[in-house]
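Example record for the data management plan.
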Amino acid sequence: MINGHGGNLRPLLEVALRAREELGIIVAIYQWWTALRNELLDMFEEQELGHAGAAETSLIAYLKPDNVKLDQAVDETPRSPLGGIPVYAFTYTHEVTSSGVYGKSSTADSSKGSRIFEAAVNQLVRIVETLKKLNV
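Corresponding structural encoding:
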């Protein structure tokens, strides 16, 4: 499966678990932002990799240029609803950021998005070829 939104991972993992338990099959889940982390760090700073940050915005600007107004991109540091203590907690995006941006999006550009897209497609081709050889 190819996941295009971080919020989908948990339900996809549930589906993968059920497929494994009920059908005996292994389901692979691909997420470009985690699978391409090293490549992304070559193109972007850490604060550009968050939700709606420069990496995501660049990719969408490349894929859907009419839907992205790069001149309106904003930078925002998400608030910590629990005061920054080192724990995980479920929060809604609107609770921690007014713009939806987790970090920096103002540096996005479609040429970087093109590089992300090409890297993801190439990586997916390699993954599919590997999976075919594994016969899973």
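Summary line stored alongside the record: Residues 45 and 104 are 9 Å apart (CA to CA).
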